[in-house]
Design brief:
By secondary structure, this protein is α+β, with helices and mostly antiparallel strands. It has two helices and two strands, in the order ααββ. It is elongated, with a radius of gyration of 22 Å.
Length: 81
């Protein structure tokens, strides 16, 4: 879903640029107003990911290993095992 939304916003911004509208033009503002977007890219970088803590490993009777830890998925943090 995020990929589709990102692509849609990029298309809207490209349309505003391709129609030759400049900042300050009423038509420029109309494109962004109609899309309910800011004409400015005011995004800031994400914070550094939070490392996992309290890693524990448990040997299962089946021979597998169960790993548990405390962590977060905030800001796109991903843990690969």
């Amino acid at each position: 879903m995020m990929g589709l939304g990102t692509a849609l916003v990029a298309t809207i911004r490209a349309f505003a640029d391709a129609t030759g509208q400049l900042e300050g033009d009423a038509a420029f503002a109309d494109v962004y107003t109609a899309a309910n977007l800011s004409p400015y890219n005011d995004a800031s970088p994400l914070a550094a990911p939070t490392p996992a803590t309290s890693l524990q490993a448990l040997l299962l009777n089946s021979g597998g290993i169960k790993l548990t830890w405390n962590g977060t998925t905030a800001n796109g943090t991903v843990y690969s095992v």
